Amino acid sequence: MNSDYRDSGLVFPPNFIVGSATAAYQVEGAARDGGRTESIWDTFSHTPGKTWNGDTGDVADDHYYRLESDLDLMAELGLDAYRFSISWPRFQPGGQGPINPEGVSFYSRLVDGLLSRGIRPIATLYHWDLPQELEDEGGWPERDTAMWFAEYAELAATALGDRVHTWTTLNEPWCSAYLGYGSASHAPGRTSDADALAAVHHLNLAHGMAVPRIREAATNSPQVSATLNFHVIRGEDAEAKRRIDALANRAFTSPMLLGRYDDDFIADTSEVTDWSFVHAGDLATIHQPLDFLGVNYYSTVTVKMWDGVSERAMNDGHKDMGGSAWPGSRNVEFLPQAGPYTAMNWNIAPDGLEDLLVDLSERFPDLPLMITENGAAFDDEVTDGRVHDADRVDYLNRHFTAAHRAMQRGVNLQGYLVWSLLDNFEWGYGYSKRFGIVRVDYDTQERIVKDSGLWVSEVAKNKATPALN
Ligand code: GBH
């Protein structure tokens, strides 16, 4: 790469959206309140040994009860947009039947509070909190789950679609399918390669069934999208790269954006499943016009083929790679990568973001992109009531620089949402990892805007990155 991706004073277009993101189970708390029923993450996190320290989202950031002050905080930061997720079991307890007035009221107050502060609401319908009752009936490996999701999407768009303009169906279906049903590092913690692939298809189907229902129910000419986490794959071994690209990326982009499953993906997984769960017409249903694609990016992976079942791929201490997150391709090895690293041990690679954005815009030229998540966990310290998280500021500066370069190369990038507004429940890692641009003290629930929060605030207000000092 030609330079180190640290730049300053980069100017973004005046309508470029700079904001931040969270997800319901990671911030809301109030897990048993207001008519909410359990999700698979309640069950999973309350099962001993599943999360760090046995942490759960029972209280999290108490955001459900601190809505007004958290909204004021967002206004103070001058965010253009806030991406939140709707908790399905709070909105529609059990995932079937009537909506929950108290749940609807919470999201309604959230949306109204954002709009009155001039912040654009971006609503994600599914950020991993499947109602437990639907999991009891089989979860994502079952076709019915897609049907129930489409019902829920219509109800949500009916209730909020007069005010919410921007919708995302699914967040990172890769995680829901492979980590939830393959490697078991995420809820519901099942370990079946065949189920993981059935989940891939039914998540795709859920997306495709939901898109027209949202368009019909929302009265505000909605912008509809999906958010995918992309694997930016490095290494010299073309076969290993092809396999991981098929399983991780094209498993979702090909059906959603091109209306097909790629032959190599089907062939790679044929020892695991016969794909008989794909019915006639499904791919046409999944292939819906989208207004933009949400891109989540954190780091790269480096792979090569290994003539056996890779111990590293199965169990390298990286939870995402445990068990079988790679049905049909366990013989791909994930190699250690050059640092520097974040507190997740993910390598910091802004060039991966530039490459990803350019690659997507070349493959899907008419599809605008939005970075719906990018950010980093670091071991923050509080000194005199401040958090001087220079490492996170540097990470964000480098990644905004990468995005800026991609835009100069012609990428239609509409915005950049930093993960996350608040330190929060980091899934299997519990509260041990802090991604926030605002610190949360989990004893007092006090919020402290970190230096990175001030940095994002400046970028949002000025549409330019601040000069380096
Ligand atoms: C997102 O998941 C989630 O949407 C969000 O809820 C979560 O809090 C946030 O990111 C931080 O984890 O790990 O180097 O092999 C991201 C999960 C991280 C999974 C990157 C795939 C692949 C690269 N992804 N990982 S690496």
From TrEMBL:
Any single GO CC term annotated in Swiss-Prot or TrEMBL for this entry: cytosol
Keywords: Carbohydrate metabolism, Cellulose degradation, Glycosidase, Hydrolase, Polysaccharide degradation
Entry keyword annotation includes Hydrolase: yes
A GO BP entry: cellulose catabolic process
Binding site for substrate: Q26, H127, N171, Y298, W419, E426, W427
UniProt entry tagged with the keyword Hydrolase: yes
InterPro entries: GH (IPR017853), Glyco_hydro_1 (IPR001360), Glyco_hydro_1_beta-glucosidase (IPR017736)
Gene3D superfamilies: Glycosidases
Active-site residue list: E172 (proton donor), E373 (nucleophile)
EC number annotated for this UniProt entry: 3.2.1.21
Record-stated family: Belongs to the glycosyl hydrolase 1 family.
UniProt name for this protein: Beta-glucosidase
Organism ancestry: Bacteria, Bacillati, Actinomycetota, Actinomycetes, Micrococcales
